[in-house]
Hints:
Number of helices: 15
Distance between the termini: 52 Å
Helix content: 40-55%
Largest sheet: 9 strands, mixed
Structural class: alpha/beta
Order of helices and strands: HHHHEEHEHEHEHEHEHEHEHHEHHEE
Strand order of the largest sheet: 1-2-6-5-4-3-7-8-9
Strand content: 5-15%
Amino acid sequence: MDKREILLYLNYININNRTIIDIFDNTGLEKFFERSRIDFPYLVDQNYDKIFNPKNLEDFKAYREKVARLGVDFVTILDEDYPENLRHIDDRPVVLYYKGSLDSIRDSQSIAFVGARKCTDYGKWACKNLAGSIAQAGITTVSGLAYGIDAMCHKATLEVGGRTIGVIGCGIDQVYPKANKFLYEKIEEEGLILSEFPLETPPIGYNFPRRNRIISGISLATVVIEAKEKSGTMITTRCALDQGKEVFAVPGNINSIYSKGTNKLIQDGSKLILSAEDILDELDYLLDKKIEKKTIDYSALDKDEVSVVRYIENNPNASADSLALNLDLSIDVINFLLTSLELKNIIENIGNNEFTIKE
Protein backbone atom coordinates (compact mmCIF):
# COMPACT_ATOMS: atom_id res chain seq x y z
CA MET A 1 0.00 0.00 0.00
CA ASP A 2 1.08 3.56 -0.59
CA LYS A 3 0.63 6.15 2.16
CA ARG A 4 -2.78 7.32 0.89
CA GLU A 5 -4.09 3.78 0.97
CA ILE A 6 -2.69 3.22 4.46
CA LEU A 7 -4.75 6.18 5.64
CA LEU A 8 -7.79 4.78 3.83
CA TYR A 9 -7.19 1.38 5.45
CA LEU A 10 -6.99 2.86 8.95
CA ASN A 11 -10.21 4.76 8.28
CA TYR A 12 -11.90 1.62 6.92
CA ILE A 13 -11.19 -0.41 10.08
CA ASN A 14 -12.56 2.46 12.19
CA ILE A 15 -9.43 3.55 13.97
CA ASN A 16 -10.23 6.81 15.75
CA ASN A 17 -9.26 9.83 13.66
CA ARG A 18 -7.07 11.33 16.41
CA THR A 19 -5.27 8.02 16.74
CA ILE A 20 -4.59 8.00 12.99
CA ILE A 21 -3.15 11.51 13.30
CA ASP A 22 -0.89 10.27 16.12
CA ILE A 23 0.26 7.38 13.94
CA PHE A 24 0.94 9.71 11.04
CA ASP A 25 2.80 12.26 13.19
CA ASN A 26 4.97 9.58 14.80
CA THR A 27 5.77 7.40 11.79
CA GLY A 28 5.09 9.45 8.67
CA LEU A 29 3.72 6.05 7.52
CA GLU A 30 7.23 5.11 6.39
CA LYS A 31 7.74 1.33 6.07
CA PHE A 32 4.52 1.08 8.04
CA PHE A 33 3.85 -2.66 7.89
CA GLU A 34 7.49 -3.50 8.51
CA ARG A 35 7.44 -1.94 11.96
CA SER A 36 7.26 -3.88 15.23
CA ARG A 37 5.10 -3.38 18.31
CA ILE A 38 7.83 -1.32 19.99
CA ASP A 39 7.38 1.38 17.35
CA PHE A 40 3.80 2.02 18.52
CA PRO A 41 3.99 2.67 22.30
CA TYR A 42 1.05 5.09 22.06
CA LEU A 43 -1.30 2.43 20.64
CA VAL A 44 -3.45 0.30 22.94
CA ASP A 45 -3.20 -3.41 22.20
CA GLN A 46 -6.71 -3.51 20.76
CA ASN A 47 -5.86 -0.95 18.07
CA TYR A 48 -2.49 -2.50 17.31
CA ASP A 49 -4.06 -5.94 16.86
CA LYS A 50 -6.81 -4.50 14.67
CA ILE A 51 -4.33 -2.70 12.39
CA PHE A 52 -2.09 -5.69 11.86
CA ASN A 53 -4.85 -8.30 11.71
CA PRO A 54 -4.35 -10.36 8.50
CA LYS A 55 -8.10 -10.70 7.97
CA ASN A 56 -8.62 -6.93 8.09
CA LEU A 57 -5.82 -6.47 5.59
CA GLU A 58 -7.36 -9.04 3.30
CA ASP A 59 -10.87 -7.57 3.65
CA PHE A 60 -9.50 -4.14 2.77
CA LYS A 61 -8.70 -5.37 -0.73
CA ALA A 62 -12.41 -5.94 -1.37
CA TYR A 63 -13.27 -2.59 0.21
CA ARG A 64 -10.76 -0.77 -1.97
CA GLU A 65 -12.28 -2.43 -5.04
CA LYS A 66 -15.74 -1.36 -3.92
CA VAL A 67 -14.65 2.26 -3.54
CA ALA A 68 -13.35 2.16 -7.10
CA ARG A 69 -16.37 0.28 -8.47
CA LEU A 70 -18.83 2.80 -7.02
CA GLY A 71 -16.82 5.68 -8.44
CA VAL A 72 -16.29 7.19 -4.99
CA ASP A 73 -13.31 9.52 -4.76
CA PHE A 74 -11.35 10.29 -1.63
CA VAL A 75 -8.84 12.90 -0.58
CA THR A 76 -6.33 12.67 2.27
CA ILE A 77 -4.20 15.04 4.32
CA LEU A 78 -1.33 14.08 2.01
CA ASP A 79 -3.04 15.56 -1.06
CA GLU A 80 -2.67 19.08 -2.44
CA ASP A 81 -6.40 19.37 -3.09
CA TYR A 82 -7.33 18.59 0.52
CA PRO A 83 -9.60 21.46 1.73
CA GLU A 84 -7.22 24.18 2.88
CA ASN A 85 -9.23 25.44 5.85
CA LEU A 86 -9.42 21.93 7.32
CA ARG A 87 -5.65 21.56 7.39
CA HIS A 88 -5.43 23.98 10.28
CA ILE A 89 -8.01 22.55 12.70
CA ASP A 90 -7.48 20.18 15.56
CA ASP A 91 -8.63 16.64 14.74
CA ARG A 92 -8.60 17.31 11.00
CA PRO A 93 -10.14 14.34 9.15
CA VAL A 94 -7.32 12.30 7.62
CA VAL A 95 -9.61 10.93 4.89
CA LEU A 96 -12.60 12.53 3.20
CA TYR A 97 -14.76 10.63 0.76
CA TYR A 98 -16.45 12.89 -1.73
CA LYS A 99 -18.91 13.14 -4.58
CA GLY A 100 -18.91 16.11 -6.89
CA SER A 101 -15.86 18.24 -7.55
CA LEU A 102 -13.10 19.47 -5.26
CA ASP A 103 -12.20 23.14 -5.62
CA SER A 104 -9.79 23.91 -2.80
CA ILE A 105 -9.11 27.48 -3.97
CA ARG A 106 -12.76 28.49 -4.28
CA ASP A 107 -13.80 26.60 -1.17
CA SER A 108 -11.18 28.36 0.94
CA GLN A 109 -13.79 31.14 0.92
CA SER A 110 -16.71 29.30 2.50
CA ILE A 111 -19.38 30.24 5.02
CA ALA A 112 -21.44 27.69 6.95
CA PHE A 113 -25.16 28.06 7.63
CA VAL A 114 -26.55 25.94 10.45
CA GLY A 115 -29.79 25.85 12.39
CA ALA A 116 -32.84 23.95 13.54
CA ARG A 117 -34.26 21.03 11.61
CA LYS A 118 -37.76 22.01 12.71
CA CYS A 119 -37.28 25.63 11.78
CA THR A 120 -39.98 28.28 11.47
CA ASP A 121 -41.07 30.08 8.31
CA TYR A 122 -39.03 33.04 9.54
CA GLY A 123 -35.93 30.85 9.82
CA LYS A 124 -36.42 29.48 6.32
CA TRP A 125 -36.88 32.98 4.93
CA ALA A 126 -33.79 34.31 6.73
CA CYS A 127 -31.66 31.39 5.53
CA LYS A 128 -32.90 31.66 1.95
CA ASN A 129 -32.07 35.34 1.73
CA LEU A 130 -28.75 35.20 3.56
CA ALA A 131 -27.38 32.03 1.93
CA GLY A 132 -28.63 33.07 -1.51
CA SER A 133 -27.01 36.49 -1.22
CA ILE A 134 -23.74 35.05 0.06
CA ALA A 135 -23.69 32.60 -2.86
CA GLN A 136 -24.32 35.46 -5.30
CA ALA A 137 -21.23 37.15 -3.89
CA GLY A 138 -19.20 34.17 -5.10
CA ILE A 139 -18.74 32.49 -1.73
CA THR A 140 -19.27 28.76 -1.20
CA THR A 141 -21.96 27.84 1.34
CA VAL A 142 -21.64 24.86 3.67
CA SER A 143 -24.21 22.90 5.66
CA GLY A 144 -25.15 19.39 6.75
CA LEU A 145 -27.73 18.23 4.18
CA ALA A 146 -30.33 17.67 6.91
CA TYR A 147 -33.89 18.94 7.17
CA GLY A 148 -34.73 22.56 7.88
CA ILE A 149 -32.04 25.23 7.74
CA ASP A 150 -29.48 22.86 6.19
CA ALA A 151 -31.70 22.01 3.24
CA MET A 152 -32.73 25.64 2.77
CA CYS A 153 -29.07 26.74 2.67
CA HIS A 154 -28.28 24.26 -0.10
CA LYS A 155 -31.47 24.98 -2.08
CA ALA A 156 -31.05 28.76 -1.89
CA THR A 157 -27.47 28.47 -3.12
CA LEU A 158 -28.34 26.20 -6.03
CA GLU A 159 -31.24 28.46 -7.03
CA VAL A 160 -28.84 31.37 -7.67
CA GLY A 161 -26.26 29.16 -9.41
CA GLY A 162 -23.85 29.14 -6.48
CA ARG A 163 -21.59 26.44 -5.09
CA THR A 164 -22.53 24.54 -1.94
CA ILE A 165 -20.93 21.79 0.17
CA GLY A 166 -22.94 19.19 2.09
CA VAL A 167 -21.13 17.43 4.95
CA ILE A 168 -22.96 14.26 5.95
CA GLY A 169 -22.96 12.06 9.04
CA CYS A 170 -22.99 8.68 7.31
CA GLY A 171 -21.19 6.84 4.53
CA ILE A 172 -21.14 8.77 1.28
CA ASP A 173 -23.03 5.91 -0.37
CA GLN A 174 -25.96 6.56 2.00
CA VAL A 175 -28.65 9.21 1.44
CA TYR A 176 -30.02 10.58 4.71
CA PRO A 177 -32.66 11.77 5.15
CA LYS A 178 -34.25 9.96 2.21
CA ALA A 179 -36.44 12.97 1.48
CA ASN A 180 -33.30 14.90 0.46
CA LYS A 181 -32.36 12.43 -2.30
CA PHE A 182 -33.03 14.94 -5.09
CA LEU A 183 -31.05 17.61 -3.23
CA TYR A 184 -28.19 15.14 -2.64
CA GLU A 185 -28.05 14.36 -6.36
CA LYS A 186 -28.20 18.04 -7.31
CA ILE A 187 -25.31 18.91 -5.01
CA GLU A 188 -23.35 15.97 -6.38
CA GLU A 189 -23.81 17.43 -9.88
CA GLU A 190 -23.11 21.07 -9.07
CA GLY A 191 -21.24 21.17 -5.75
CA LEU A 192 -19.55 18.82 -3.30
CA ILE A 193 -20.63 16.19 -0.77
CA LEU A 194 -18.15 15.17 1.93
CA SER A 195 -18.00 12.40 4.53
CA GLU A 196 -15.20 11.10 6.72
CA PHE A 197 -17.09 7.86 7.43
CA PRO A 198 -16.37 4.59 5.59
CA LEU A 199 -18.87 3.31 3.03
CA GLU A 200 -22.04 1.72 4.44
CA THR A 201 -21.74 3.66 7.72
CA PRO A 202 -25.34 4.24 8.89
CA PRO A 203 -26.58 7.66 10.05
CA ILE A 204 -26.28 6.96 13.78
CA GLY A 205 -26.55 9.74 16.34
CA TYR A 206 -22.88 9.84 17.36
CA ASN A 207 -21.77 10.64 13.82
CA PHE A 208 -23.49 14.01 13.59
CA PRO A 209 -21.61 15.82 16.37
CA ARG A 210 -18.44 14.39 14.80
CA ARG A 211 -19.24 15.80 11.36
CA ASN A 212 -20.06 19.23 12.82
CA ARG A 213 -16.38 20.08 13.33
CA ILE A 214 -15.93 19.61 9.57
CA ILE A 215 -18.81 21.96 8.73
CA SER A 216 -17.28 24.73 10.84
CA GLY A 217 -13.71 23.79 10.04
CA ILE A 218 -14.01 23.99 6.27
CA SER A 219 -15.62 27.42 6.63
CA LEU A 220 -14.22 30.81 7.56
CA ALA A 221 -17.33 31.66 9.56
CA THR A 222 -20.55 30.05 10.76
CA VAL A 223 -23.97 31.68 10.59
CA VAL A 224 -26.50 30.37 13.10
CA ILE A 225 -30.19 30.66 12.17
CA GLU A 226 -32.58 29.36 14.83
CA ALA A 227 -31.26 26.94 17.42
CA LYS A 228 -32.39 25.57 20.74
CA GLU A 229 -30.01 26.17 23.62
CA LYS A 230 -29.03 22.51 23.65
CA SER A 231 -28.84 21.23 20.10
CA GLY A 232 -26.55 19.94 17.38
CA THR A 233 -26.40 23.46 16.00
CA MET A 234 -24.86 24.71 19.22
CA ILE A 235 -22.29 21.91 19.02
CA THR A 236 -21.27 23.22 15.60
CA THR A 237 -21.05 26.70 17.10
CA ARG A 238 -18.76 25.48 19.88
CA CYS A 239 -16.59 23.77 17.26
CA ALA A 240 -16.34 27.03 15.32
CA LEU A 241 -15.38 29.00 18.42
CA ASP A 242 -12.80 26.38 19.45
CA GLN A 243 -11.34 26.59 15.93
CA GLY A 244 -11.04 30.37 16.20
CA LYS A 245 -13.68 30.95 13.55
CA GLU A 246 -16.18 33.82 13.39
CA VAL A 247 -19.71 33.07 14.58
CA PHE A 248 -22.68 35.17 13.44
CA ALA A 249 -26.23 34.85 14.74
CA VAL A 250 -29.60 35.88 13.35
CA PRO A 251 -31.84 37.32 16.10
CA GLY A 252 -35.21 35.70 16.65
CA ASN A 253 -38.46 35.83 18.54
CA ILE A 254 -37.71 35.79 22.29
CA ASN A 255 -40.77 33.58 22.82
CA SER A 256 -39.57 30.88 20.41
CA ILE A 257 -37.58 27.89 21.65
CA TYR A 258 -35.84 27.92 18.27
CA SER A 259 -34.39 31.36 18.98
CA LYS A 260 -33.09 30.78 22.50
CA GLY A 261 -29.76 29.46 21.24
CA THR A 262 -29.17 32.22 18.70
CA ASN A 263 -30.26 35.00 21.04
CA LYS A 264 -27.97 33.61 23.76
CA LEU A 265 -25.07 33.64 21.30
CA ILE A 266 -25.71 37.33 20.63
CA GLN A 267 -25.95 37.99 24.36
CA ASP A 268 -22.58 36.27 24.79
CA GLY A 269 -20.90 38.39 22.13
CA SER A 270 -21.52 36.79 18.74
CA LYS A 271 -22.09 39.26 15.92
CA LEU A 272 -25.77 40.02 15.32
CA ILE A 273 -26.53 40.04 11.61
CA LEU A 274 -29.52 41.48 9.78
CA SER A 275 -28.33 41.04 6.20
CA ALA A 276 -25.68 39.39 4.05
CA GLU A 277 -23.87 42.73 3.93
CA ASP A 278 -23.27 42.45 7.69
CA ILE A 279 -21.42 39.18 7.12
CA LEU A 280 -19.43 40.47 4.17
CA ASP A 281 -18.47 43.67 5.97
CA GLU A 282 -17.14 41.66 8.89
CA LEU A 283 -15.18 39.41 6.51
CA ASP A 284 -14.22 42.07 3.98
CA TYR A 285 -10.63 40.81 3.90
CA LEU A 286 -12.00 37.83 1.95
CA LEU A 287 -13.74 39.54 -0.84
CA ASP A 288 -13.41 41.66 -3.91
CA LYS A 289 -16.98 40.97 -4.96
CA LYS A 290 -20.26 42.63 -4.08
CA ILE A 291 -23.79 41.32 -3.91
CA GLU A 292 -25.82 42.16 -6.96
CA LYS A 293 -28.77 44.19 -5.75
CA LYS A 294 -32.14 43.47 -7.29
CA THR A 295 -33.58 46.48 -9.08
CA ILE A 296 -37.32 46.97 -9.30
CA ASP A 297 -38.87 48.26 -12.50
CA TYR A 298 -41.44 50.64 -11.07
CA SER A 299 -42.61 51.66 -14.56
CA ALA A 300 -44.20 48.19 -14.89
CA LEU A 301 -46.35 48.74 -11.77
CA ASP A 302 -49.51 50.73 -11.26
CA LYS A 303 -49.79 53.52 -8.68
CA ASP A 304 -51.15 51.36 -5.84
CA GLU A 305 -48.56 48.61 -6.45
CA VAL A 306 -45.78 51.20 -6.27
CA SER A 307 -47.20 52.46 -2.96
CA VAL A 308 -47.22 48.93 -1.52
CA VAL A 309 -43.66 48.18 -2.67
CA ARG A 310 -42.32 51.49 -1.35
CA TYR A 311 -43.97 50.90 2.01
CA ILE A 312 -42.54 47.37 2.31
CA GLU A 313 -39.07 48.64 1.32
CA ASN A 314 -39.19 51.13 4.19
CA ASN A 315 -40.94 48.76 6.60
CA PRO A 316 -39.58 45.22 6.18
CA ASN A 317 -41.88 42.44 7.43
CA ALA A 318 -44.94 44.66 6.90
CA SER A 319 -48.28 42.94 7.41
CA ALA A 320 -51.37 43.24 5.24
CA ASP A 321 -53.16 44.99 8.11
CA SER A 322 -50.41 47.60 8.54
CA LEU A 323 -50.40 48.23 4.79
CA ALA A 324 -54.16 48.74 4.75
CA LEU A 325 -53.97 51.10 7.74
CA ASN A 326 -51.08 53.23 6.49
CA LEU A 327 -51.98 53.34 2.80
CA ASP A 328 -55.66 53.99 3.46
CA LEU A 329 -56.74 51.09 1.25
CA SER A 330 -59.23 48.33 2.07
CA ILE A 331 -57.84 45.00 3.20
CA ASP A 332 -59.39 43.33 0.12
CA VAL A 333 -57.51 45.70 -2.19
CA ILE A 334 -54.28 45.18 -0.23
CA ASN A 335 -54.59 41.40 -0.44
CA PHE A 336 -55.18 41.64 -4.20
CA LEU A 337 -52.12 43.87 -4.62
CA LEU A 338 -49.96 41.60 -2.49
CA THR A 339 -50.96 38.56 -4.54
CA SER A 340 -50.22 40.43 -7.77
CA LEU A 341 -46.78 41.52 -6.52
CA GLU A 342 -45.96 37.99 -5.35
CA LEU A 343 -46.81 36.63 -8.80
CA LYS A 344 -44.53 39.27 -10.32
CA ASN A 345 -41.72 37.97 -8.06
CA ILE A 346 -41.24 41.36 -6.39
CA ILE A 347 -42.30 40.53 -2.82
CA GLU A 348 -42.61 37.35 -0.77
CA ASN A 349 -44.63 36.19 2.20
CA ILE A 350 -42.26 35.25 5.03
CA GLY A 351 -45.00 33.77 7.19
CA ASN A 352 -47.62 35.18 9.55
CA ASN A 353 -48.95 37.18 6.58
CA GLU A 354 -45.87 39.43 6.65
CA PHE A 355 -44.10 40.54 3.51
CA THR A 356 -40.67 41.64 2.38
CA ILE A 357 -38.97 42.57 -0.88
CA LYS A 358 -37.74 39.44 -2.65
CA GLU A 359 -33.97 39.38 -3.06
